[in-house]
Specification:
alpha/beta, 7 helices, Rossmann fold, 24% strand, 2 domains, six-stranded parallel beta sheet, globular, two-stranded parallel ribbon
Length: 180
């Protein structure tokens, strides 16, 4: 996703779902490129987002995300990374993306037609697994350049709890279900 957004030193990117499984990696990768990451997450995950590399945090439960970004970044933003899929928030934030900016969604919420008409490149990256990228991530993990997100394990008998948590949209890190 960081590649799709063409992030570089000094860019400001709003990361929606910054502390979930995908977002936890994205925040680290974007920060490594020198981007200013604005993490959208719950207040209880603010410290976690900052440890991952977020320069700023917006608590979606306490603040109107679009208005918070508008007031803090009045000059606009360069990109939106969506790991959650809240189309209303994405549409509002897209109004703040500078012409030539980028919006990428891991859940298919980037509307290329609408955004393209405003000079914003939109990319949906869901389901685009690339072995070279996975190998690069594994190498960064081995070298300690990035960390693995929090991982919570569920037994197969408790898989329903895992599904309910994922369905709530309020997950921190990754969930795995084991047969035992």
């Amino acid at each position: 996703m960081a590649d799709a957004l063409q992030l570089a030193e000094g860019h400001t990117v709003v990361a929606i779902g910054a502390t979930g499984g995908v977002g936890s990696y994205f925040v680290q990768l974007a920060a490594r490129r020198g981007a200013r990451v604005v993490a959208v997450c719950s207040g209880e995950n603010a410290g976690y987002a900052r440890r991952l590399g977020a320069a700023d945090v917006i608590d979606y439960a306490a603040d109107d995300v679009v208005e918070a970004v508008r007031s803090r970044y009045s000059g606009g933003i360069d990109a939106i990374a969506d790991m959650h899929g809240d189309r209303e928030t994405i549409a509002g934030l897209a109004e703040l993306v500078r012409s030539g900016g980028h919006v990428a969604s891991a859940v298919g919420a980037a509307d290329a037609e609408v955004l393209g008409g405003r000079g914003i490149e939109a990319t949906n990256v869901m389901g685009k697994v690339q072995s070279a990228l996975l190998q690069a991530l594994a190498a960064m993990l081995e070298r300690g350049e990035i960390t693995s997100p929090d991982i919570r394990s569920f037994s197969l008998a408790d898989a329903g709890q895992a599904l309910a948590a994922v369905g709530s949209g309020h997950v921190r890190g990754k969930f795995i279900v084991t047969p035992m």
